Amino acid sequence: MANHFFKNIFPCIRLRFLHSSSTLSSVSPSSTTAISSSSFTVEFLVNSCGLSLKSALSVSNKFQLNHKTPQKPQSVIQFLKSHHFSDIHVAQLIVKRPQVLNSRIHNNLKPKFDYLVKIGFEGELLPHIILSNIDITRVSLASQIKQSVQCLRLFLDSDEKLLMAVKRAPWLLSQNMKILLKQNVDVLVKEGVPAHAVEWLLISHPRSILQNPEKIIDAVNSVKALGFETTDTMFIQAFRVMLQMSESTWKKKIEVMNSMGFSEDEILKAFKKCPQCLAYSEENFRKTLDFYFNTMKLEPQTIIVHPALLGYSIEKRVRPRYHVLKVLESKKLIKGIKKPKQIAIGEKNFRDKYIDQFIDEVPGLLEFYLGMKEGKSSVLDGEEKKQLILLESRQITFFYCE
């Protein structure tokens, strides 16, 4: 049906541009060529690249194909599909960078694709990495992509780690980082940071290690001033968090925590256990602690002992789990709620232990839990109580509040 639509519409497009011989007589040859190219571009983008007519018209406003050489873009499409690009992949790539249709295959695309496959981006990983960083189709293989890979290999001791780093941050392949990366790694190594910690930072959070060297030095000094040893397991995590904040931001977060009842010693103790706990916004602190203190009735000391609690999503994780536990406790199916532990365990373990095990005793428990996780349940206290009463009655399974 779609093909029938396009068969009908493209003659209309051509007619719109090439209205009549009388109209064309007043148009210059160059204008006629432009009109033909525009019509051809739209038709090619829809029929060969899989774009919608709307997307094709939008792309054609910025990019034109030469209607006299249709075999060139067609050969690019065939090349992409021979390298695990699906129709959807092709359409996505063309929308992002239509200029790729004018690429030379043997002098540009093929050498790059061959090299990426050689370093591990085989099969469906290849279109994934290209679509995640379309600059790969633009930058030089020799002076940019290979240089980036060689630079990363200086600090990552295996191809597996290299692959992991680039999969997480495809932009690394088009980043001029040789000098900056070496300077910053040298700073960390000189301070005594272990090689495995530097590797972790480069693989998991590469933007952190590609900051201005002065900022790197300031962050190192700030973390050391808090009492961290550079060889401590948590040093590199604290360093990464500190890089994200100015001194004024740090002070403001301390003030917020103070206002919620924590002393500076307690805050530092929590930070040393879980540096990420201070990476969140002041608004997030207030919202999270409000739920822990006023709904779950946790003591401030519990947060200090378990600072990772500050990083969990209240709406997607904490609230749904808490209410499941309350239902089980009210029905005497569990003896008590060990709140931090039950909030912290993995999703599969929580489902196995607190939901799947009680499916028969509490019909609708799974639906209730999933509904809250997906945001289908109201978060208003009155509505929550209504849902819990209905669930506990066992007379109906569950209903979603609109």
Please tell me about this protein's structure.
The chain contains 24 helices and no strands. The chain is mostly helical.
Concise overview:
The protein is mainly alpha-helical and 402 residues long. 64% of the residues lie in helices and 0% in strands.
Describe the SSE topology.
Elements: H1 2-17, H2 21-24, H3 29-47, H4 53-60, H5 71-81, H6 87-96, H7 105-118, H8 125-132, H9 141-153, H10 159-168, H11 178-190, H12 195-204, H13 206-209, H14 213-225, H15 235-243, H16 247-259, H17 264-273, H18 282-295, H19 300-305, H20 314-330, H21 339-344, H22 347-354, H23 365-373, H24 381-393
Helix pairs in contact: 1-3, 3-4, 6-8, 10-12, 11-14, 14-15, 20-23
Question: How much of the sequence is in beta strands?
Answer: under 5%
**Anisotropy-based shape:** globular
N to C succession of SSEs: HHHHHHHHHHHHHHHHHHHHHHHH
- With helices defined by DSSP (H or I, 4 residues minimum), what is the helix count? 24
Poorly predicted ranges (pLDDT <50, ≥5 residues)?
A: 1-35, 377-385, 391-402
| Average pLDDT figure | 84
The quaternary state of the protein chains shown equals single chain
Q: Structural class given helices, strands, pairing?
A: mainly alpha
Rounded to an integer in angstroms, the radius of gyration calculated over CA atoms is 29 Å
- N-end to C-end Cα span: 38 Å
Please describe the biggest sheet, giving its number of strands, its sense, and whether it closes into a barrel. none
Write down how many β-strands occur, each being a DSSP E stretch of 2 or more residues: 0
What is the helix content? 55-70%
